[in-house]
Amino acid sequence: MKNGLSVLIPVFNVHILDLAHQLYNLLMIQKLYFEIRIYDDGSADDIKSKNRAIYFPNSIYIESEKNIGRSAIRNKLVNDAQYNMVLILDCDIKIKRDDYIIKYIPFLDSTLAVSGGTEYEDTVSDLSTVLHWKAGKHKEQKPFDVRNLHPYHSFTLNNLLISKSIYQEILLDEKIKTYGHEDSKFGIELERKNIKLVHIDNPVYHIGLNSAEQFISKSISAAENLAILVKTEQIGINTQLYKVYEIFKKTKTLFWFMSIFNIFKPLIYKNLQSKNPKLFFLDLIKLHAFASKISVK
Prior knowledge:
Elements (H helix, E strand, L loop, with lengths): L1 E10 L5 H13 L4 E7 L4 H7 L7 E5 L6 H11 L2 E6 L4 E3 L4 H5 L8 E3 L2 E2 L10 H11 L3 H4 L12 E4 H7 L11 H11 L4 E3 L4 E3 L5 H22 L6 H11 L3 H19 L6 H16 L3
Parallel strand pairs: 1-2, 1-4, 2-3, 6-9, 7-10
Antiparallel strand pairs: 4-8, 5-10, 6-8
Helix pairs in contact: 9-12, 10-12, 11-12
């Protein structure tokens, strides 16, 4: 396996050309072997036609005939990578700083997994995406020193540097087809295998914000996936969602929560689609989805 860096980006319905150029320019400044692999996972034709303009050196753009899923496309990218270290990025991000690649260079010969983190811009222009932006700001965006206190909690593959061989020891679970928690399971496996995960101050901006309706749908999907993982593999029992569920269950108040939620569900959804959504209501939706799924025989 060659020494160098493979930057891997799965794409679904996002214009990737600007990000690809930005990464290419930053990589060219450094004296290292690199490639940028961009695999489209069944995007719409108009998206693919624009992304086909990626033709600069050291870059590979490949289209999948059909959508194979978040886990499968990432596994394929890593398996195809030609270099020993891989940097995994989501497609709907923007590089925050010009020293982005430089920050990762000291770790290119290490056996650590290194997370740069994710941030959200200070303002949001599209009011329909306020819920996603607010949730990201308050729940996902954390300083690197805070993330290092519990490095495997809320693990995400976005902006992760890891060796190809370590990734291949674990791989994402391709049975998880819908959105949510495929990377949580990966993070738990990292911890189980005693592979050290280090968080550094090297964030990217998440700019691909969903509308409130889309974000609620994805949140429900993630909660349902977590319920399945808890039931089948006991993965996720340390999450806050599961702990709250257990409190309701042990105090025999779960039935009352589910009933009251259904009564106020229209008002909850109305608030979350407003200009001032309350994240507490989003937590209630997740809990309801989790409890509903885990109770299915």
